[in-house]
Amino acid sequence: MKLVYNKKYRDLLVKQTKEQLLFFLQNSIDFSIVVNIESGGVEFTPELPEEIRSGFQAFTLFTISGYTFQSAFVKDEQFVFEAGFGSQNFGAVVYVDIDRILQILMGETPVFINVTASVEQNKPKDSFEVFASKNRNKKFFKNKLD
Asked: Model pTM?
């Protein structure tokens, strides 16, 4: 089995990603993240207009500075921030599953890389599995789902 598919290794990298995000936020250090949008795990509220959303690449860079930095926080297994998009600065709250963050950068320098973020995960088969597979919902189940 390749290391990037190993659940314990993936969990370790998610934990380290979360710790990196918290460190930067707690120490008021601006940073950027590269997110694997194509694999899911990124939501915008309200939904972005199609002309903005279609401009995103599979791996999209979000800069966390200014107002976006002030609005940013980590909740459970998600990184949340508010940002403006497009020429009209369309405002949306962005919810990013931490396991989809591929890189954390300071300026143009990568300071952390999550090599498992670009690896396709096993797809849940039904709505129950989707619900149960979210880390924030595991507290509702006695048996560990893998």
From this structure: 0.79
